[in-house]
Amino acid sequence: MPACPPAILNLADVAAAFIDPTRESQAVFRKVMDAVARPGTIQDLAFAPDAPQGLDRAAGAVALTLFDFETPVWLDPALRGGTAEGWMRFHCGCPLTDDPVKAAFALITDALAAPELAAFNQGDAKYPDRSTTLVVQLPALDGGPRVTLTGPGIRSEASLALAGLPNGFWEQAQANQAKFQFGVDLIFVAADRLTALPRSTRVTIQGN
Amino acid sequence: MAYVAVKGGEKAITNAHRWLAEDRRGDTAAPEIEVAQLREQLSLAVDRVMSEGSCYDRDLAALAIKQSRGDLPEAIFLTRAYRTTLPRFGASLPVETAQMAVRRRVSAAFKDIPGGQVLGPTFDYTHRLLDFTLAADGETPIDGATQADEALAYPMPTIASVFAHEDLLEADARTAEAEPFDLTREPMAFPAGRDQRLQALARGDEGFLLSLAYSSQRGWGSTHPLCAEIRLGEVAVEFVPDELGFAIEIGEVTLTECQMISTDAGGVDKAPQFTRGYGLTFGHCERKAMSMAIVDRALRDGAANEASAPVQDEEFVLYHSDNVEASGFVQHLKLPHYVDFQADLQLIRRLRREHAAREAAMKEAAE
Amino acid sequence: MNARPNEPERYYNYAYLDEQTKRMIRRSILKALAIPGYQVPFGSREMPVPYGWGTGGIQLTAAIIGPDDVYKCIDQGADDTTNAVSIRRFFAQVADVAVTEDTGEATIIQTRHRIPEQPLKAGQVLVFQVPQPEPLRGLEARETETRAMHAYEEYGLQYVSLYESVATYGRIASTVGYPTMVDERYLMSPSPIPKFDNPKMGDNEAILLFGAGREKRIYAVPPHTTVRSLDFEDYPFETQTWDENCALCGAQDSYLDEVVLDDTGARMFVCSDSHFCADRRAAGHVGPMADHQLAALETEPT
C76 and C184 in one domain? Predict the structure, then answer.
């Protein structure tokens, strides 16, 4: 497992995180679990603490809840070397990696510049759980082009209209689903809100 | 007779716990046993609990033995369940058994070896006659062992160093850089690396490994092992705190190490050599260390060729060696299975009805 | 030696597990939900109850439970079986959580061998204790082999086994742990629930989580997921039925336990789901032996 970069943390610059990590991470996790179990539903994480500059509240909450020394994280270059990186290293203790294939999680804040979904770890035929989970921070979880979702977790169909995704993203998501059991899983965050798109969800692009 | 349905689990459990506590204490006319007495006088039980419990703490192990009324797998389970809640500060450096302060060291390979044969405290060569003086009340007089004229060699040369100049013994397979597999944090995976295998065996049930090793000796996956060395003694444990950046000694542990060697006739690309099986335990667990070394060696054969005997079958050995897992699953059959049994009852009754109908039809047809 | 305090609620972390272990389990749960029916290997810990006694379910519950939850625990469908009592006590103590026997009121229901009769609803999580997560284990002992079968969707062996059952017994003679296909991809063991409960798994409103502690696997079925019990066109899947009704509440459509009354063959059949039965009796439903002592015991406050 790659070690944390050796840069010294200035603790005075590291903002606070959960006040009660046990209770708060449990509450955040239940929201994330509900999101993954019910693709297309929007969860509210307004109760979570402030996140450092560059990270939305929901993104920070997910990092605090799921990242630790066992999960190499691919951190968006936009956050590298900044306060958010120091905050994550201190509170999560997670190793950072530049190699998307080695990442258990990717934290993406600039979706337009991010590598394609297929660049991350797609999992192994026998261990598809080893694929990367992408946490993608967007300007908003609504207002974008609408897609229809079906599959596990969805009664008949659901829909999402995420804003700020690059052109061709939903085609990538379709390709990601098409090679199930391989594929990445996605968590989208914007401000206090969160939704998820596991690899099992079938996407129909509207207007096609 | 009529039966009374058993319900009211809460009350039953509370009372069972009380009864258990009573039984643990036994007759109060006998004095309560102290944890320190167990630690000092049942020290080999303590060693086994520490080894298979994966937790080096003599006091905790002694407490577990007391609480479990001497049921060692139960004590091992108690230790494991406690251990799993402890925070992890980091990993120590590998201990150097070559630097062991040796108390016992024997080799069956050579009559004499550098450092000498050191019999040490062992049951070997005791006559297994019950010692009724131990049954007498009070202290048994102890004739202390005679101090040797000369201190033992330190460091005691290892068996590997004895072979070194001839390249007769395969080299240490250690890879210092890679972080070793940790079964307490990751599930078993196959094919298992040697690190995973050795950890599983070190935690494995002594009785299971003993029987497997024995089966191998009798020809079920034979490795013709020879005990090159057993050593018992104390080694220092070192840790590098992040803030210091250099190693500090944080304590010492007693270890039993066993090196079994077998002949390897070699092949086209490989000169004939002796290969090794390795056993290591906390405390003084010689039977376990020897069994572990034989099983380790046999598993290496299994990995190289098609496994033909149980002892060579990695999945069979590693999945079934843990007595906490095995004991739990065997004993879970005590739990209610009313629902399953009702389903089986229904099926069997139905199949019997159909069977009877077929018989009757055949009989009718015959008449 | 130093005295070590023996007060679990203070000495151990909230919900017993340390936070790092919870995170590891939580990550496994998310992957399990994302790949329905696939068994995620996880770093299962030793728990203070033996392997085989619900350690997988307990670890799942410990990783998701919070002080706002209402917890119900059943074994064989009943709240008052000893191991259910023991596990419920554990969480009441270490997680400071409200407990209930009311299926509708619970947010987390931990179960062994049954799915409650009362339909579950959105917001509920059903946690299964699983002894053997591998549906193919009875047919192939090696994990290395079965994992490859799942990887390449090679489930022929399972169908052959069902076919042999039909050839021998004239029907698929599997009664509990009847194999299911999840979202038409992964073959999944429903845990040893009777096949009576299999149809409740598909399109359920609740999240279904499965934990096998000793075997170190977690798997899941999200709500509204297709779960198909394997069968053949000419031998369709069928569930258990009884000629009898529940002796206490008269239910005709619940899973029944057989209670032996004497050694001359007298039997009574009662609902295995103790809360379902008590609820019906409270609503005025009466079975042929409604005044049997079992009814009084079951409604005794605990």
Answer: yes
